[in-house]
Structure formats: C-alpha cells, structure tokens
From TrEMBL:
InterPro entries: ADH-like_N, ADH_Zn_typ-1, ER, GroES-like_sf, NAD(P)-bd_dom_sf, Quin_OxRdtase/zeta-crystal_CS, Zinc-ADH_QOR/CCCR. Coiled coil: none annotated. It is found in: Cytoplasm. Its main location: cytoplasm. PROSITE patterns: QOR_ZETA_CRYSTAL (PS01162). This is Zinc-type alcohol dehydrogenase-like protein.
Length: 339
C-alpha cells in the first residue's frame, strides 16, 4: 500500500523529511477496523513528532492523526461498524499514523462520518473536535445543557486555529459567550464567523481589552497557544472559582500559586489520553464524534477545512507541514486522494 513517512528527523524543506513509501497492507484483529483512507489533515502534533521521533532504515515512521475513509474490514471483536461504513477519527499516538492508504484503528475511538460532508471536509474535524469537546465539557466542566451556560464567558486563546475553529462553534452552540483571541483581520473575522462574540488581540494585555468589552473576568479560559506566555494573564483574568484548560505543554513550571486566592482550577487536555491508556471510558470518543456528526448534519456546526491539497503524496504533505510551521494557518489543512 502507499504511505508517507520518514527515517530521520529533518527540516521540512529537506526532500527526505517526508517520503513516499510502499508498505505491507495490515490486517484487522481484535476491535480494530481496517480503513481505506480517503482524506487526511495535519495538526501541530504531526510537526512535533516528526521533529524528534526518528524511525530506522528498516522501519520508517508513519505519522498523521486525522482521517476519513471507508471501513475495508473489521476485527472479530468489532460491534460498532461493518465493511462499507464511512468513518472519521483521529487515532492513537502510540500506533502508526494514518498517512497511509490503509490504516488500523480501534473502533472505540471512531465515529461515523457526517453524511453532509465530503471525506476531505470530515478529515478536518476529528482531532480538533475531540480536543475542543473534551476541553470544554470534560476538563473545564461547562454544561452540555445550553441554558446552564447562560451568562457565562469563555476566553479561547488562539480562536482561528484548528482547535479554536471548532471550539468557538461548540462553545457558542452550547450557550457560552465566546471571546476569542486573534491578531490579524482575517483571523479575527474567521473566529467571528465561527462563533466568537468578541475578539481581543493576544499581542496586547488581556485585562484592559476585556474591561473595554464589559468583562472584569471570564469564567473559563481555553488556552490553545503558548501556555507560558499567557499564564500570568490567564491567572489575572480568570474569575474566582473559574477554570483554565491548556493543550500546550509548558516549557517551564507554572506558578499555580497565582490561582490560590481565587480557588481557580487548572487542567490539561490531551485528546490521546483515552487511547494511549485504553481507559474504561475510551468509548466516549466514539460517542462524541457521533454527536459532532449529528450537529454537522443538522447544520449546527460546520467543517473547519480552509486549505485542500490533492493528491496525498510526500510533496503535498511536506507543503502542508510547512504551512503549519509558518504559524499563520487559519482553520485546517487537508489532503485527499491517494494516487
């Protein structure tokens, strides 16, 4: 089967940083689905893994954690899907990635593809939608009943990125007042178009901008960019008994004492946790992806695909990684069609 991978960690402008491969087609066992991959998208985790995890001459690394495709075969213990089903998913970081023509994934972290989306449009969503849903509801503790969120505010740092593009939609759909950060007119407009009620500039102090909007504090903060850089400002602007969630690893220890007087909460979100440790609630990712699909098909949410490349090959994937490394992407970059 066709695949894209690498042997050595190299800068993305090096042609060997991602190369076209021919690998043996895997077989489904246990609760695994064998999926014929129709489209993939790229995420910052792809860039990070490529930068430090080397393969070998005999076993190249195949990465990628966002895919949409068709179930080719199912393992003997599968109960949720059958061959021919259209699916979308993010996969597991401790298994080979989905940058391949056929891919194995545990059915418990797979959802049915939204009927109203193409494979490319669907591939933009899984990792970011899982991250946003878990961050907002499981980690921050916002309610899934919109009426219970009336009057509550959430500050989303990085509102126009991959996670931000779906987090703004989910948070606003469930009744939260969304304040998103953006620094360029086009990224600010993207965030507004995807559910943000207000925009502040993350290059300027948060508190004065929030005050100008009429907010002394915010109830929730979802940090999708540079945890260290914004830590003091997050501590300053979080409401008493509020909650902060970040998805970005801190480079230095965080001073949690800044949250003490407010009895505020800080929590991490890492969407691979359930799959990595096969937690008892692993099936929740299957359920939440199905919920996202229902919301998409009912017109309440929409895809965050912003850039589409074709076909799926090493040259286009290197281009996609370079776009992410530029730090200026809006929405998601998607590739479709192995040729």
């Amino acid at each position: 089967m066709k695949a894209i991978g690498y042997h050595r960690c190299l800068p993305i402008d090096n042609p060997e940083s991602l190369i076209d491969l021919i690998l043996e087609k895997p077989a489904a066992a246990g609760r695994d689905l064998l999926v014929q991959v129709k489209a993939i998208s790229v995420n910052p985790v792809d860039v990070k893994i490529r930068a430090f995890k080397e393969g070998s001459e005999d076993a190249p690394n195949v990465i990628g954690w966002d895919a949409a495709g068709i179930v080719e075969a199912v393992g003997p213990d599968c109960t949720l899907f059958k061959p021919g089903d259209e699916v979308y998913y993010a996969g597991s970081i401790v298994r080979p990635g989905c940058n391949s023509e056929f891919h194995l994934v545990d059915e418990r972290i797979v959802g049915r593809k939204p009927n109203t989306l193409s494979f490319a449009e669907a591939a933009a969503l899984p990792l970011t939608a899982i991250t946003a849903w878990e961050g907002i509801f499981d980690r921050l503790g916002a309610s899934t009943e919109p009426a219970n969120n009336t009057g509550k505010t959430i500050l989303i740092i990085g509102g126009a990125g991959g996670v931000g593009s779906i987090a703004t939609q989910i948070a606003s759909k469930y009744g939260l007042t969304v304040i998103a950060t953006a620094s360029r007119p086009e990224s600010a407009q993207w965030a507004l178009d995807h559910g943000a009620a207000h925009i502040i500039n993350h290059h300027e102090p948060f508190a004065p901008q929030l005050k100008a909007l009429g907010f002394k504090w915010v109830d929730y903060i979802f940090c999708l960019h540079l945890t260290d850089t914004y830590w003091t400002q997050m501590a300053e602007t979080i409401a008493p008994q509020g909650a902060i969630c970040s998805i970005v690893q801190a480079k230095e220890p965080l001073n949690l004492t800044l949250l003490k007087n407010k009895s505020a909460t800080f929590v991490w979100e890492f969407m691979f946790t359930r799959a990595m440790y096969e937690t008892p609630d692993m099936l929740e990712q299957h359920r939440l992806l199905n919920t996202i699909a229902q919301l998409i098909d009912s017109g309440e949410l929409r895809t965050t695909m912003a850039t589409r490349l074709t076909p799926i090959n090493a040259a286009n994937l290197r281009h996609a990684h370079a776009l992410l490394e530029s730090g200026s992407t809006i929405g998601k970059v998607v590739l479709e069609h192995f040729e």
